[in-house]
Automatic annotation (TrEMBL):
Protein name: Diadenosine tetraphosphate hydrolase
Domain of life: Bacteria
Keywords: Hydrolase
SUPFAM superfamilies reported in the protein's UniProt record: HIT-like
Length: 142
């Protein structure tokens, strides 16, 4: 019997669940300044990208690409940033952030810039519902 998936406490504190992809739990960062999703492969004890199998790396790549396309379309963003850092939270996770000229961190990275702006509860629910619907549809074909 395998251990149930464990999400790092910092990720759990900073995010809300959107949906489950084929490989990853998809979370929304609680920062209203950016459309920002985090994909966490549902495998325990992963730290780095190379801890995934070749098939899992391919699946994570597909999930990130679909997530990026959805963020661009829903939020009409100019670009998405896709990154796996893991310096603060060691559990393997991938950030997908929609970016816009003039956003609070543009053109630099979003990390460490200003104060996070938590969503109002209704706004978070609306965004999660819209993202969930799009992601579920997209992942039917992945």
């Amino acid at each position: 019997m395998t251990d149930p998936f464990r999400l790092h406490p910092q990720l759990a504190a900073d995010t809300d669940l959107v949906t489950e992809g084929p490989l990853s739990r998809i979370l929304m960062m609680n920062d209203a300044r950016y459309p920002w999703l985090i994909l966490v492969p549902r495998r325990n004890d992963l730290v780095d990208y190379d801890d995934l199998t070749a098939d899992e790396r391919e699946m994570l790549g597909r999930e990130c690409a679909e997530t990026s396309k959805i963020l661009k379309r829903l939020f009409e963003s100019n670009k998405t940033n896709v990154a796996m850092l893991g310096n603060m939270v060691p559990q393997l996770h991938c950030h997908v952030v929609a970016r816009f000229p003039g956003d609070p961190a543009w053109p630099g990275p979003v990390w460490g810039i200003g104060q996070s702006l938590p969503f109002r509860e209704d706004d978070a629910k609306d965004r999660i519902e819209a993202l969930r619907a799009e992601l579920i549809t997209a992942f039917r074909t992945v």
